[in-house]
Each structure stands twice: as C-alpha cells, then as structure tokens.
Amino acid sequence: SQQGEEDPQALSIQEGENATMNCSYKTSINNLQWYRQNSGRGLVHLILIRSNEREKHSGRLRVTLDTSKKSSSLLITASRAADTASYFCAAEGQFYFGTGTSLTVIP
Amino acid sequence: DAGVIQSPRHEVTEMGQEVTLRCKPISGHNSLFWYRQTMMRGLELLIYFNNNVPIDDSGMPEDRFSAKMPNASFSTLKIQPSEPRDSAVYFCASSKDRFLEQYFGPGTRLTVT
User: Taking CB atoms and an 8 Å cutoff, what residues of chain B touch A35?
Assistant: First the structure.
C-alpha cells in the first residue's frame, strides 16, 4: 500500500506567510521524514520525527506527528521565495514518496 | 564527501536500445535505493539493496529492468530494451540505515525516442 500521501498537491502563498502541508500514512511507524525537492534536483532531507515525539523544530520548520490519526504536518514559517519547491513525506521503511506538495512562494 | 554520484546526467536513446545508469553511493552507507520520477506517478521506488543484497524489487516494472550492486561503492540500473514510456528521471539514493534519512543523487534524465 502507498504510504506518505501529501496534501494539498499544490500551494501558492505570498512571501512572509506561513505554509502548511499535510501527510497521511497507513501503518504504524517508528519515524517519519520530510524532504524537499527543488526543480530538477534530487530530494534533500529536512527533518525526521520519531513516533514518541509530537512536535519537532528546525529553524523555520515545524513538524508535528499524530500517531493516532496517522498523520503529520510540516509548517514553514515566514516563507521566502527560496522555499519554492516540492515537499515530500516518507513513512519509515516504506520508501514511497508520491507526488508531493508543490509550494510556490510569490515574492 | 562528494555525495551520491550518478552518471550520466542526461541520456537520450532510441527505442530498443540498452540503457545503463550508474550510481556511486556515499562511502559507509549500507543501503542503496533506485527511484523513478514522472509527473504522472510521482517518485516511485524501483528497488533497494541492503549490504549489496537486493531486498525489495517489487517496484521494478518488468523484466526489461534489472539492477545490480557488485560492491558497496557501485550500482547499475539497466533497461533492455528501452521503450518511450521509460522516459523519466531516475534517482539513486543511499543511507546509513534503510530506516533513516536518505541522500539523493542529482538524477539521470532519460529520454527514449
């Protein structure tokens, strides 16, 4: 079964606004990871959150994990044009990245 | 470290030809993954190796695709014969542990005409 389905598929915001992306998965996991992909490049790992963590921060990124709902969210605060990219989640050991959320930050 | 290295970066070939994509993982990483990315299907896992042994090849589309990892520092993905529907970007990634973060190469953009 597919894991790591992102929502929404596309998101367009103004620079300075916050961007929230969601991810759902199907089976129990020990961790979940978020990645970013700039156009024409490979994925870059952003953050890993473990199943015993509810929230994790890294710079302007905030990730939450709700294991009861099998969902995670990625919040990018004070977005910048350089944040324009596709964002993917990957449930531990599942290796399915789907189509991601395409984020466009308008200067 | 130079990161994951893939070659070639671009490949244009005619239908029916054999295509070989190459990957050098990060030194010390035990797991290696091959993915294919298209607009329609997103990023799909084709196969992954752990300690040079193929663990899951259920994503390999058909017998035309084969992958090898003869040693810890090299892997190939071969398509023979190639078809236009194989056109995609192929990524190789490696990780210290298959359950931890993966490091992706720059990808090989394959066009089959």
Answer: 102
Range 49-88 of A in CB contact (< 8 A) with B: 88
* CB contact B105 to A (< 8 Å): yes
Determine the Cα–Cα distance for residues B9 and A107; give it in Å rounded to an integer: 31
Read off the pLDDT of residues B14-52 as tens digits, 9 standing for 90 and up: 999 999 999 999 999 999 999 999 988 888 899 999 999
User: What tens digit of pLDDT does each residue of A80-97 get?
Assistant: 999 999 999 988 766 777
Among the listed residues B91, B84, B86, the one whose alpha carbon sits nearest the alpha carbon of residue B107? B91
Say if residues A67 and A51 touch (Cβ distance below 8 Å). yes
Are B48 and B30 within 8 A, CB to CB? no
